[in-house]
């Protein structure tokens, strides 16, 4: 299915929300009857291609959602956040409806609802004509379409909060809809994913599910667990408060029970596995770059991008300031780790050097990049086996939407809440064991500490998910559902000031780092606690950087001030952008955001 988004769509009856100037396009007449399309597996497959096309277009996940949802947090932020402009406002909690990154023709909102409309038409067609009770191929397609629609709705809620619920194809009576309480949508998604899991095969049980570009039972269950945790957690509501749902069906204990069961189903299936060993964590992302799309490893589902679509490395990868043998694109690093993340990992934690890269490439050589300009090492041009040549400056790397480690840590979180830390400990330990392959004694000591109480274990989960998933854009949604968004950003601001001033735990860090090149690779001294300027200056062949600061005095806006301009709890979601408001026939507004 790789590159399926380039297939000529067989279905042309889709009614789509194509722009913010017209809420709907008129449907065109199909050359094939709907009853033929959705009763024929080879034709119905085009429905999935159509939905994925909506993911891959310019203003959709490709160049907007993946880039912008997730920053800014204590772990991830725009590299240029100190330049207060419309790009930085997408993450700094000071957004506004006319932001030129989103207030555009054919915007992200419209592309997501386009995908939902295509899914709704396919669901109707498959239920009506697909004989899903007797045809396993069409049953699998129904499960896949239900799951893709759930992805789109879950991400709409993360982006905008309460959004219009559209679970049937658009009619003249439903052209314009107001916001729907997200609880209504969450309950529908939980039911849909329960049904989808019953229709979908496990990874590698069929030829279709041998690829991570098709959803499977494990992903549907993992997504249901993720949505349950969000539904049972905190969020900014339409009354302006940050609270949990008052719907008894979405009570936290019930949602933790769903998450626990779904995650344990996946774990006990043994259809997925963690990469382990000294290079296990790195292997996850190197495997992504190999583009084999094999299911049954750690990746559970990936948004498939063709070679001419997708900007994962382009926006989130290690920056190449010039073209070189690895890439004809001089790109990377629009969003990166916050400076404190370099020091949140212990030096024995193998995730640090994979996740946080303190250098960039210039003229084919690695050079230190600056403390306030770090990069996600999970995405690298140098790991691709091809040159990402693209007239649209895309790299074509798939977006790994969920991986098995997420399921394991969700299991640990839910089991701690239900059964206590000792029952949850084996799942957290699985992740720590991989992080410290050469230091098992550190894992043993750590686990003894964090299992002292449910509260201590929960704190460990909060920290572990940052260490495991920085650069995968999960942190913001996690912090919101835990009601820790403002708390953790405030902590990050305090740490950033201490790091800048070399006080607190950062007091003994060097004021510079020292580097030399060994071929194209750079060796850097001064990144670890215990390193000193005196030793760095004495190292033969090493050159000092001019400084190693969070926010130099030349910055007009200090890094910590730019991380969140307003109270994050009052701006947990984006405003609906003006073109959509203007096209809503008065049904949509941003009053709960004070806009």
Brief synopsis:
The chain has helices spanning 34-37, 41-56, 58-68, 86-89, 108-129, 136-160, 182-199, 217-231, 252-269, 280-290, 312-316, 341-344, 351-355, 404-419, 421-435, 440-450, 454-469, 475-481, 485-501, 533-538, 559-563, 578-582; strands at 76-78, 235-236, 242-243, 299-303, 335-337, 356-357, 359-362, 365-368, 375-376, 399-403, 514-518, 521-525, 543-544. It has 595 residues and is mainly alpha-helical.
Report the total helices. 22
Output the structural class: mainly alpha
The CATH architecture of the domain at 4-270: Alpha Horseshoe
Report the average pLDDT across residues.
Answer: 93
Largest sheet: 3 strands, antiparallel
The general outline is globular
First-to-last CA distance: 43 Å
What's the level 1 CATH class of the domain at 4-270? Mainly Alpha
Strand content: 5-15%
- Main β-sheet, spatial strand arrangement: 12-11-13
Radius of gyration over alpha carbons?
Answer: 24 Å
**Secondary structure: helix percent:** 40-55%
CATH names the topology of the domain at 4-270 as Serine Threonine Protein Phosphatase 5, Tetratricopeptide repeat
Low-confidence stretches: 1-31
Could you tell me the number of beta strands?
A: 13
Describe this structure in words.
By secondary structure, this protein is mainly alpha-helical. It has a domain of 267 residues: Serine Threonine Protein Phosphatase 5, Tetratricopeptide repeat. Helices cover 43% and strands 7% of the residues. It is built from 22 helices and 13 strands. It has a three-stranded antiparallel β-sheet, with no helix packed on it. Strand 11 and strand 12 form a beta hairpin. The N terminus is likely disordered.
């Amino acid at each position: 299915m790789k590159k399926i988004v380039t297939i000529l769509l067989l279905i042309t009856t889709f009614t789509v929300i194509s722009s913010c100037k017209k809420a709907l396009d008129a449907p065109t007449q199909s050359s094939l009857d709907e009853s033929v399309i959705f009763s024929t597996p080879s034709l119905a497959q085009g429905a999935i291609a159509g939905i994925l096309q909506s993911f891959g277009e310019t203003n959709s996940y490709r160049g907007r959602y993946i880039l912008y949802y997730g920053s800014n947090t204590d772990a991830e932020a725009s590299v240029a956040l100190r330049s207060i402009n419309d790009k930085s406002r997408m993450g700094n909690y000071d957004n506004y409806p006319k932001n030129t990154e989103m207030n555009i023709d054919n915007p992200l909102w419209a592309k997501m609802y386009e995908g939902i409309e295509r899914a709704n038409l396919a669901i109707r067609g498959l239920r009506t004509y697909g004989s899903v009770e007797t045809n396993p191929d069409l049953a699998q397609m129904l499960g896949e379409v239900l799951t893709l629609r759930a992805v789109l709705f879950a991400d709409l809620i993360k982006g905008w909060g309460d959004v219009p619920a559209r679970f049937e194809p658009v009619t003249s009576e439903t052209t314009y809809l107001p916001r729907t309480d997200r609880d209504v949508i969450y309950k529908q998604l939980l039911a849909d994913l329960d049904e989808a899991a019953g229709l979908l095969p496990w990874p590698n049980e069929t030829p279709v599910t041998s690829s991570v570009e098709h959803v499977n039972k494990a992903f549907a269950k993992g997504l249901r667990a993720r949505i349950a945790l969000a539904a049972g957690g905190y969020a900014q509501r339409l009354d302006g408060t940050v609270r949990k749902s008052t719907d008894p069906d979405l009570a936290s204990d019930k949602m933790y029970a769903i998450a626990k069961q779904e995650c344990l189903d996946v774990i006990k299936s043994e259809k997925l596995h963690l990469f382990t060993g000294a290079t296990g964590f790195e292997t996850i992302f190197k495997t992504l770059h190999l583009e084999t799309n094999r299911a049954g490893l750690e990746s559970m589902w990936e948004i498939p991008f063709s070679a001419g679509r997708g900007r994962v490395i382009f926006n989130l990868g290690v920056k190449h300031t010039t073209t070189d043998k690895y890439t004809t694109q001089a790109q990377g690093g629009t969003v990166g780790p916050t400076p404190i993340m370099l020091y949140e990992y212990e030096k024995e934690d193998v995730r640090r050097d994979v996740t946080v890269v303190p250098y960039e490439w210039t003229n084919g050589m690695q050079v230190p990049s600056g403390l306030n300009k770090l990069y996600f090492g999970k995405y690298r041009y140098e790991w691709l086996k091809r040159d990402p040549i693209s007239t649209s400056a895309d790299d074509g790397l798939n977006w790994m939407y969920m991986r098995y480690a997420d399921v394991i840590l969700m299991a640990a979180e839910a089991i701690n809440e239900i059964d206590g830390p000792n029952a949850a400990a084996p799942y957290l330990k699985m992740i720590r064991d991989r992080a410290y392959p050469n230091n098992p004694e550190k894992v043993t000591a750590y686990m003894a500490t964090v299992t002292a109480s449910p509260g201590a274990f929960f704190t460990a989960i909060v920290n572990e998910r940052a260490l495991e998933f920085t650069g995968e854009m999960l942190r913001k949604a996690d912090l919101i559902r835990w009601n820790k968004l403002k708390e953790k950003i405030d902590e990050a601001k305090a740490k950033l000031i201490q790091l800048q001033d070399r006080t607190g735990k950062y007091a003994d860090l060097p004021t510079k780092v020292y580097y030399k090149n060994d071929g194209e690779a750079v060796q850097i001294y001064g990144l670890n606690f215990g390193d000193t300027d005196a030793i760095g200056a004495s190292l033969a062949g090493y050159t000092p950087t001019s400084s190693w600061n969070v926010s130099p005095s030349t910055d007009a806006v200090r890094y910590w001030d730019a991380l969140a301009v307003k109270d994050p709890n009052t701006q947990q979601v984006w405003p609906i952008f003006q073109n959509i408001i203007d096209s809503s026939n008065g049904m949509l507004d941003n009053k709960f955001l004070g806009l």
